[in-house]
Specification:
Blueprint lengths: L7 E5 L16 E7 L6 H13 L5 E7 L6 H9 L5 E6 L5 H10 L5 E4 L11 H9 L4 E6 L7 H17 L8 E8 H8 L8 H7 L4 E6 L13 H15 L2 H31 L6 H33 L7 E5 L11
Parallel strand pairs: 2-3, 2-5, 3-4, 6-8
Antiparallel strand pairs: 1-8, 4-9, 5-7, 6-7
Length: 342
Amino acid sequence: MDDTSAGRSVADNSNHSDNKTLRPDPSSLSVVIPFYNEAECVDLLLDTLLPVVRQLCHSIEVICVDDGSSDNTGPTLLNRCRDISELRVIRLSRNFGQDAAITAGLAHSSGQVICIMDADLQHPPALLPEMLNAWRKGSDMVCMIRKHRNDETPLVRSAKSVFYWIMQRICSFEMVQSAAHFRLMDRKACDALLRLTERSRYQAGLYQWIGFPATYMEYTPDQRAAGSTKWLLLPMLNRALRGIISFSSAPLRIWSFTGAAIACMAFLYGFYIVLKTLIFGIDFPGFATLATLILFFSGVILLSIGMIGEYLAGLFEEVKQRPLYLIYETRGFEQDTIERKS
């Protein structure tokens, strides 16, 4: 990777720590990588990543979480685990989603410092030393921000801009646009994340919600090592809706104000009709007007019910208390386990 893709610090809100005193080198380092149908990337990723992390810390572990892949990802990871002592493999029983896979990796990590990155090598491992330097200066969270999204369509870029614009206005915490999963965190930040037990997770929001001192650094994503993106428009829209509902009740308040405004308008319109009839003696034929108003208010009611339904669906998922993920197999840990679905 050339120098133009190196990270550059663009913001630092780590006011809670003394940056004049550098932290010592970490005693241990964990790298958590979620996989979903990335068999073609496994060998290249490990061969690129391991030489970098081995120079950063004497005690390392690379935790690869296979999120129910339907290709050869799981067997390939297990095969590499035989000759790489630092490799740890977790295979989930099915596809639970990227956020659940990351949470599984974090829960099984033991490092003083934990890094999260994708499996497709768009998150350059060469930036890890610079991220670790930011941690040494006192940041408990080092967040990488993409310089550009040229690999995305204009529609996707516009949709993401609208989403972050909304989140920045309805959330009670700062929501940084384009902050990726590519980040490094201190053990205490990781433990704080693991205390958040909600089932319907929007991980990017949870990183910001815990509020630990953070440094934001720009980076240029590399091209995918192999394969194609797993993020399609509809799943991204579902994820955005989950993020909004998980962190704010503003949509419910908006519909409450909308209902109040429509009620006031209806009252004023009714008063106008009565007044005009009493003064001028003119009856309103108004069938077309009445039909239009009925259709309009019916649409508003259905939208309101749908919004309430989204929140109720979230509550339904939480009260069932199902586990966030189920582990089918682990390899490389001190005590390998197999947990099958009941």
